[in-house]
Amino acid sequence: MHKRARSWSSWLGVAVLLSVVAAGAFAFASAAGGAADVESLKNDVSELKSQAGVGRLLAEQALAGNVTDTFVRAQSEQIRKGAEDTRAKLDPKEFEQSLGTQVLKASDAALRLEGTLRALREGGAARGSAESAKRSFEALYAELSEMEDGLKQ
Amino acid sequence: MKKFVEIFLGILTAMGGFVEVGELVFSVNAGAKFGFHLLWVVALGTIGIIAFCEMAGRVAAVKEQPVFNLIRERAGLNAGLVTLVAANLVNLLTCTAEIGGIALLWQLLSGWPYRWLALLALVFLLAVVWILSFQWIERVFGLLGLLLCVYLGAAYYLRPDWTQVAAGFVPNVPRLESSSEYTLFAYFVVAILSSVLLPYEVYFYASGAIEDGWNPSDVNLNRIISIIGSVLGSLLAVALMVCGAQVFRPLGVEPQLPGEAALAASMTFGKAGLLAAIGGMFFAFAGAAIETALSGAYNLAQFFGWPWGKFRPARKAARFSLTWMITFALSALVIMTGVDPVSVVEYSIVFSVVILPFTYFPVLVIARDKELMGEEHANGRFANAVGWFYLAVITLAALAAVPLLIATRGGKG
Q1: For the whole model, what pTM was predicted?
Q2: What is the CB-side half-sphere exposure of residue A26 using CA atoms within 13 A?
Q3: Which residue of A27, A68, B83, B323 has the lowest C-beta tally within 10 Å?
C-alpha cells in the first residue's frame, strides 16, 4: 500500500508540474506576443462599469438610510482605489495601436468615476451628496455599458 | 452538553472554509456572473468535504494520528515535503487575505487607515490565540460567525425563483455567448470546488479532534459534526450565490470587496442587516485566519515530530507556538505593503486545488485500511466509492487549475 501510494504521488506530482509548466510557457508566450488586445480592454471597461454600478447601489442605499455615514465614506474610498488600479492599466502604449482612442475614452471615464467616488467619500451619507453621486454613477454606467457593447462587436 | 459544544469545531472549520474572504467574494461573484448555474458545484464540494473531514476525523479519533503524519508516512518524504511547503504557502496566502479582509471590514466601521487596521488585526489575532483555549476559540468564532445567517434571510426575502434555484443543483452548463465565457465558467467550477474543499479545513479539523481529546467512542459524534458544519457552511455559500444572482446580476455588478457583498444584507434588513453581515464576516475571516495560522503550525510540527497543540503550555510546544505567531506576523506584513487581499486569496484558492489530491489520497488510503483502523472503523464500500470518486474529481481539477487561471487572465475572462 505504501509503495502504491508513493508511486501514485510521484506520477501525479509530475503531471501537475507538467500542466503548470505548460500553462506558464503559454502565458509567457502570450505576454511576449505584444500589446494587450481588445479582450483585455473589454475586461477593464467591464470592471469600471461594475464599479460604477456598485457606486450607484451604495448611493441608493445611503439615500434609503440603510447604511451608516462611515460605511459610505469608507466603501466609496475602497471602490475608488479599485477604479484607480483599473485606470493605471489603461495606458495606450500597452494596447494595440488601433485601440488607442478607445483606451483614452475608457481612461477618461475612469478618471470621472474616481472623481464621483471621491465626492461621495467627502459628502458621506448626506442626501444632496448621495443624490448627485447617484446621477453621475448612472450616467457613467450607461456610458461604460455602451463602450463595453462596442468592444464586444 | 460537553459533547454538544464540540459541534463548534465543525462550525468553525466550515466557516473558515466556506465563508472566508475569498469564498465570500467568489460566491457572490459567481451568482452575479452565472446566476444559479454554479449551485451544483457547491453541493458537489459539500459532499466531498463531508466525506474527507469525516475520514480524517475518524482516523484522528481511532488512531490519534493527524493528517500530516499520514502524508509523510504514506506519500513518502519527498512528496510529503513538497505538499508541506505548498500547503503552508497556501495557508500563508489565505491568512494574509483574511487579515486584509478584517482590516477592510474594520475600515467600514471606523474609517481608520487600512494599514493601521491591519496592524491592529495582527495584535488582536495574536492576543486571541495566545489567551483563549482551543475550545473557546471554537465556540467564540464558530458561534458569532453565525451572524452570517443574515444572508439566509436575505436570500429568502429577495424572492428568487425557487424552481430555478432547485434546477441550479443539477449539474449543468449555461448557454454562453463565447468560448472565453465557457472557459471562465470552467474556471469558476474549479475555483468554487477548491474553495469548498480547501485542504487546511481537513488539517485543522483532524488536529482539532486531537486537541479536543477525541477517542474511538467519538466516531459517531465526528460524523454528525462534519455533516452539520459542512451543510451549514454550504447553505451560507448558496445564500451568498443567490444574493449575488438576485441583487448584483440585474445591475451588471461583479462585487470585489466584502463591503459590496454587505450591501445585499442592507438592502433587505437595513442598518441592522449591514451590521450583522459585517459582524459575521469579521468572525468568519478571523476564524479563517486562526484556522490557517494554526494549520500551518500543526502541519510543520506534525511533519517534523515536534510537540504541538494548544492544549500544551506554549513553552512546552515552543516551535509550534512560534510558527503560528510567525504566520500571523508575515501575513500582516504582506498586507501592510498594500497588496489587494481578494487577489491574494484568488491565487491561494487555485493553488489549493493543486495540493488537494496529495492531501486527500493519504487520508483515503489509511481510512480504508482494515488492518490499521480495524474492521469496525475502516471505510465501508460506500465511503470507499465516494472517496475514490472525489479523488478522481480533484485530480482532474488539480490538472486543470493553473491552465484555467492563465487562460482566463486570473479569472477575468
Answers
A1: 0.93
A2: 14
A3: A27
